[in-house]
Amino acid sequence: MKKSLFLTVLAFCTMFRLSAGATSRSDAIAHVESCEAILQEFMADPATAIPAPVLQKARALIIVNQFKGGFYIGVKNGYGVVLVKKANGNWSLPVLVAAGEVSLGLQFGANSIETVMVVTDDNTPRMIFNQRFNVGVDAKAVAGPNAAEAERFNQDLLDSPVLVYTKTRGLFAGATVKTGWLQRDDTTNFNLYGTQYTMPELLYSDWVKPIDEVKPLMDYVKKIAP
After folding, report:
1. Cβ distance 152 to 175 under 8 Å?
2. Contact at 8 Å (CB) between 77 and 67?
């Protein structure tokens, strides 16, 4: 029984990783556009809007869309985009990443989890380069204060490496959270940008020019976090 369960988990993980690497260009564009919509929806709702003082500290933004479902095994599959603020103050191209989490136990139904993470240091985004990065494990992550919670602002909170905003209920400002893992997805970015440059070059160099489909997201991030 245990062996069968292990093989089932392994199969789910393999299927997800293969599907993440096989994303077509049209699907990659759709993923970027959906992440832009998620960010705009967060900012439009006072319950989830990211306050200006938080955005002023942003060194990177990570927007994630995950799907959770299953019976005995719940697999959080999804995708996200990462943008970093470069040394010259300009925001980078949005770079797609795979996102997910495998959990065991009896689970019913399915739901989507939309998350925006504000990264306040330059080192945390680089953790995704060489490993599966577990948010809340590899870097401390706390639930960020929303626009209506100015009284909860404090320097310790704003100095947390990752401030998390999610539409999942039950998070309170300052509470430690875990939001699954992120992993680079070079194949999808090859398809999106038509280049063999990998995640580090796409984020930190100016070798690849923005394609028209990613400019709306870049312009919006520049507007809210100049």
Report:
1. no
2. yes
Q: Count of domains in the chain?
A: 1
Sheet with 60-69: list strands edge to edge: 133-134, 181-184, 95-104, 73-84, 60-69, 110-119, 162-166, 141-143
Stated pTM of the model: 0.81
Contact 86, 149 (CB under 8 A): no
- Measured at the CA of 29, the angle between CA 48 and CA 27, to 5 degrees, comes to 105
Domain span at residue 137 reads 2-224
Q: Quote the Cα angle for 80-31-222, to 5°.
A: 70
- What residues of the chain score a pLDDT lower than 70? 1-22, 68-76, 102-111, 136-139, 147-158, 168-179
What token pair was written down for 7? Answer: 């093989």
pLDDT score of 8: 39
Integer CA distances (angstroms), 198 to 28, 115, 186, 203, 207, in order: 15, 24, 6, 9, 11
* Backbone φ, ψ for residue 83 (5° rounding): -125, 140
